[in-house]
Amino acid sequence: MSTTYDVKLGGVQYRADRATPIYVARWRVAGKARSKSFRTKGLANAFLSDLRQAAKSGEEFDIATGLPASMLAQESRGPSFLEFAQTYVLRRWNASAARTRETDAYALLSLIPALVADIPGRPGDEELRDVLRNHALLPEKRRSPLTGEQAAALRWLEKASLSLASLGEARILRGTLDAIAVTFAGSPAGANTVRRKRAVLHHLLEHAVELKVFPSNPLDEIKWTAPKAVTVVDPRTVVSPAQARQLLEAVAKVGRKRGRRLKALFACMYYAALRPEEAADLRLRNCNLPESGWGLIVLERARPQGTKRWSNSGETHESRSLKHRADKDTREIPIPPVLVAMLREHITEHGTAEDGRIFQTGTGGTYSSSAYSYVWQEARRLALTPAQVASSLAARPYDLRHAAVSLWLNAGVPAPEVAKRAGHSVDVLLRVYAKCIDGEQDHVNSKIHSALDV
User: Fold this and answer.
1) CA–CA–CA angle 28, 30, 35 (5° rounding)
2) Quick one: which of 104, 158, 229, 399 could link to 191 by a disulfide (CB 3.0–4.6 Å)?
3) Same structural domain, 91 and 206
């Protein structure tokens, strides 16, 4: 290895002449120009700072690579986990919904602070999560300016972040799994939360396999059992048709106007099994509402609620393609006369938004999940007994959709048709609603009773 002490450090150049803007650190070794690109200015400055410290301490620089000896071993190990996580988020940004971006980031808020070296000056975990959430895990144009504390926290993270390659070590990977098994407050995390975060980690490592960082996914080699999550609908949450009617009537009595505006939205969840985000984007052109008989809804889009920083528009609600469907794909749902009448009445009383949406706030906006959940809880208190209110019966608006699908299955509608209307695959439908399908229990009990000869 040929080395030299002839080192001249330059500065950081911002390059915006490409799809993803970069920061380029520049320096010269033995008269030869060197450069290295980074996603953030902080990473580029930290790199030059490391070079400067090496030069001050009298280290020799390798002429072939332009790096001091102390950095050669680290450089050979590839990107840090922080760098790779940032690249992962940006690579998926354009193709992901706001909720998916938020899920990815939420997992990384646990993973990145856990995958660091024990070096002095570690900021608090909340400070680390803050700079990740508001800056490091966002595209360049979406980042808010760094405060002094945030800049210090990011510099520490950039220096302390372990290499991506270190996740090939079982010890480190087990520690990572331990980190996602607890909440930010340190208490045991819910099973669904743990499983979602592990799924993000697994997918991130799959990407590393594609880039030849690992020969296979190291997470597959770890014997670790994720907590069991409930994946089936609890029959105790499912209302009967009579209870559903009582609840819908109670909704209209909540507040001065809000309840009346939301009654038909909740009815769409029960009579058509719409998801809340599907009802939120339902438009007049999607509905065939005859004066009598059955009507038809042809769903085109959904309007999920997310956090502004993760959305394309910077708004809370965005219109997107239907869940698990290709862009511009639709779903047809025949609707019974009772829902046809409710929708016709709603449109007559409240009109539609400028873009044709049937359900709108008094100012033409979209109801937040907290707003319609409040109305729903008030309606439960009006329509149900105290014992039922305290139970899980229709505890969430989404339970109306569960009640609709359960009703269809128990009415004898073939599973493929139910799946088609609900927007499920048949296998998911039967797995999720397995406990809600009646019809065989009395027959089986009768057989057992006869066998017992009592």
Assistant:
1) 25
2) 229
3) yes
Burial class from Cβ neighbours inside 10 Å (0-12, 13-18, 19+) for residue 441 reads exposed
Q: What's the whole-number mean pLDDT along residues 194-212? A: 92
Domain residue limits at 292: 241-382
Tens-place pLDDT, residues 123-136? 999 999 999 999 99
- Name beta bridge partners: 116: 161
pLDDT digits (tens, 9 = 90+) for 308-339: 888 888 888 888 888 877 778 899 999 999 99
pLDDT in tens, 111-122: 999 999 888 899
Q: Which two tokens stand for residue 306?
A: 């997310």
In whole angstroms, how large is the CA radius of gyration of the chain?
Answer: 28
> Which residue's entry shows tokens 């809000």?
258
Q: Which two tokens stand for residue 60?
A: 């020799």
In a domain, 205, yes or no: yes
> pTM for this one?
0.73
377, two tokens: 């809880």
Residue 439 forms part of a structural domain: no
Same domain, 314 and 346: yes
For the chain, the domain total comes to 3
The answer to whether residue 439 scores a pLDDT higher than 60 is: no
